[in-house]
Amino acid sequence: MKVFCIGRNYVDHAKELNNKVPSKPLVFMKPRTAVTYEPTIPYPTFTENLHYELELCLLVSKTGKNISEKQAGEHYDNIGLGIDYTARDVQSACKAKGHSWEVAKAFDNSAAFSTFYPKANYDLSNIKFHLTQNGKIVQKGETKDLIFKLDYIVHYISQFFTIEAGDIIMTGTPAGVGPVSLNDELKGHLEGELVLENLINSK
Ligand code: MG
Fold it and tell me: Which of 76, 87, 154, 192 is most solvent-facing, going by the fewest CB within 10 Å?
């Protein structure tokens, strides 16, 4: 399996990192070894500025290529939350040199997911989710604010890549990204329900 990620998909988040709002989805990937469902996240040794990014995620249920936007919904049945852990200092250095981001984004345990739930239980055009850090709300997102909507993302990615059952698509983070510290407790809530808990562990 593989993880697709969309960058800069909320206007307020693009602005907080001084990035332009993209005219096409910004796509990058994480390998299977990035994926974790464990409740503890080891703080990587190669960064001094690990950030959280809480994102709504789609679990691909049906393999496909060149999928139309209209048919995109047939390719995912379940949604969940994920944290796109980012070594922000490493990423900034990559960006400054015009280099790719893999070492800042695709490292082991950099994609932490909740359980996935049937999408039929939700209004996909207006899902609300939020993240708390040690009990304080730090990020709030609503899918109505996505620049590129869920079905369009599936369509767009599938022009380049075969999406396979079991793949996960992280749809982008809202504003409010920030650093984590050792022993921080991060909790992701989907429509007010606690679905994802991470404890940041020792280096
Ligand atoms: Mg992200």
Answer: 192
